[in-house]
Amino acid sequence: VDVKVDGKAVEGSPFGVKASNIEPKKCTLEGESLDGLVKEDKPTTLVLTTKDKNNMKIYEPDTKVEVTVEDSNGDEVPVEVKDNFNGTFDLSLKPKAGINKLEVKVAGKPIKQSPAKIKTEN
């Protein structure tokens, strides 16, 4: 985008604009830890699938995925995000005791299932 003020180019102009066809509210999250209880501190993996406005799986390089997990005390639980380069991402974590709050954003916007709860047992 070429930006001018009073006919003069703004410093840094032209600016690149990246449009995304990913629709965060259509993206899905699947995994056993969303369906029932999982063991405390047992590794679990969720699969995030990015989708377009037609609900079709879509892959875009450099897709920004943000994931945060908090345990029942409000402490952060580490999460590893792995891009599978096919429109899916593996989200690996070890949930802590109680209910863990999972928030997932794609391209800066929350997905439909976010926030989600992961419940654990001893």
Low-confidence stretches: none
Mean pLDDT, to the nearest integer, reads 88
SS field, number of helical segments: 1
- How would you describe the shape? elongated
User: What is the radius of gyration?
Assistant: 18 Å
What fraction of the residues are assigned to beta strands by DSSP? 35-45%
Oligomer: single chain
Q: How would you describe what is shown here?
A:
The chain has 122 residues and is mainly β. Helices cover 3% and strands 39% of the residues. The protein contains 1 helix and 11 strands; from the N terminus they run βββαββββββββ. Strands 4, 6, 9, 10 and 11 form a 5-stranded mixed sheet that branches. It has a 4-stranded antiparallel sheet with strand order 3-5-8-7. The protein has a two-stranded antiparallel ribbon with strand order 1-2. It starts with a strand and ends with a strand. The model has no long low-confidence stretch (mean pLDDT 88).
